[in-house]
Write a structure and sequence with these properties.
The complex is a heterodimer of chains A (299) and B (273).
Chain A: H1 8-42, E1 45-46, E2 56-57, H2 61-67, H3 70-101, H4 109-120, H5 123-133, H6 140-147, H7 159-187, H8 191-199, H9 204-232, H10 236-241, H11 253-263, H12 267-298
Antiparallel strand pairs in A: 1-2
Helix pairs in contact in A: 2-12, 3-7, 3-9, 3-11, 4-7, 5-7, 7-9, 9-12, 11-12
Chain B: H1 2-30, H2 34-38, H3 52-59, H4 63-94, H5 100-110, H6 115-128, H7 135-145, H8 147-160, H9 163-171, H10 176-187, H11 189-205, H12 208-213, H13 222-227, H14 237-257, H15 259-272
Helix pairs in contact in B: 1-14, 3-14, 4-5, 4-7, 4-8, 4-11, 5-8, 8-11, 8-15, 9-10, 11-15
Chain lengths: 299, 273
Amino acid sequence: MARLRVGPLERAERRLGYALLAPALLLLLAVVLYPIATLLWTSTQQLHLAQPWLEGFVGLENYARAMDDPRFWSALGVTLIYVGVTVPGAILCGLGLALLANLPFRVKWPVRLGLLLPWALPLVFAGLIFRWFFEYEQGVVNAVLRLFGAAPLRWLSTPDLAFISTSTAIVWKSSSFVALVLLAGLQAIPSSLYEAAAVDGASAWQRFRHVTLPMLRPAIVVALIFRTITAIQTFDIPYAMTGGGPGHSTETLAMYVHRTTIDVLDFGYGSALAALMFLLSLALTSLYIRQTRRDEGTG
Amino acid sequence: MPSFKKARALAALLIVANGVIPALWILLTSMKTETELMRVPITVLPDTPTIANYVRVFVDQPMLTFLWNSLAVATLSTLLCVFVSALAAYAIVRLRVPMGTFILLAIVLVSMFPLISLMVPLFQIMRTVELLNTWPALILPYAVLSMPVCTLVLASFFQDIPQDLERAAEIDGCTRVGAMWHVVVPLAGPGIFTAAILAFVNAWDEFLLALTLSPRVPARTVPVGITLYQGEFAFPWPIISAALIVAIVPVCLLIVIFQERVVGGLTAGGVKG
């Protein structure tokens, strides 16, 4: 309904529209935009709550300090390894779960519940539950090892094993959301495509490879991006399972920011670290937008 | 096809086992005595099932306070979030606000900001306005946290309501706002409800902001309260597992009862986003 002139009715409608949008925009301004401005400003300050006499503008010094901080690089490395391991892990496990859940069940609710429960659990609870599984003496994982005559392992106090156990918890927790997204994608694939493939004599693997996967691509991309953005922020599960240890071997960027600000009270440096994290996630977000635009263009 | 039936049953079993066994194991743990938990090799079923751990959760720990804080923060932030998102979604979908899609995109992008980057300045701001350890410190950020998914879910529901119904109400003498209230809100009921469940679960589960903005014991929410339980010597697993079950059950009930809505809302928010 293209109109040449904006009539009075239209104008009134528009005014109402702005009025209705105002609360949402105000909330965004107060809780996101203003804090982000504060963050960027604080990152150029010397601001240590325990040493208020040292306050002042220091330019980009906090960022320079991050570049020379081995613990920052270690935390960045840990974060990227978590992304590299848990994102593909969650996508693969989620795809497996989604393919299983897509079978024509007569009773649907147990399967749905099985997918929803891990999603509905707080991340820290998943961390606590898996910490209990991986306990040395009373953990169920070592109990199974003992049952098979193997020596129990110190899962949470050996660097590599601590990384494996926390990653397991993250993959378990996040694969259910991936499965739900992919399941919706699977259910949107028209069955006529499979029938046509079957008429052409395609095997089950060929149907999966040439019908399911290409049709599922947009859903996989969405799941991939969502998972990546949450993986960059990994905090709760290592916090609950290892506290970042042993040493700093499972300390992520988010945990280092938390420690620098809330525990050490160095808000200037902590803000610079948080701003760097923000940039990292901004880069990935723009990747996401470009991807969706391209999908819309071709699809 | 009996073999297909068997494969189907096996698939269902796998999914249910994967989702439920961890919580089930915690349930079994919570019913064991402390001495039984110390025993090696470990037991699967409790020897003498006990509810002592549950009693201790409420007697030795301020669990009721945690539950009350969580319930209040989650409920109030959900109300705020759904109200604000519904208005915004309606404006974008129905009132042809200029740059509506752009505004929708901006709202969605908020969900991509790392929470940790917001946590640092929010702590400073809440400290300045002396809101640390109060409900509003969490209610406001939580309302924004769920705004993207709520706005998307509600926008897609509003889009499905035939515009003629509103026009008819207006012809019958309703004002624009009146038509919204009497026609759109009742018809969008399921959508509003779906959005509310998602916002509630998000708020109920949140940990990082609760840990930093509301850390004092009387102000803690359930996830923070349980994670920071301190035992005299070791991590107090019997109490922790009982507390976990107490905290998991309400959310469990919620998703069992409303599972279809939850799945629908999640995938609408996820896929269309």
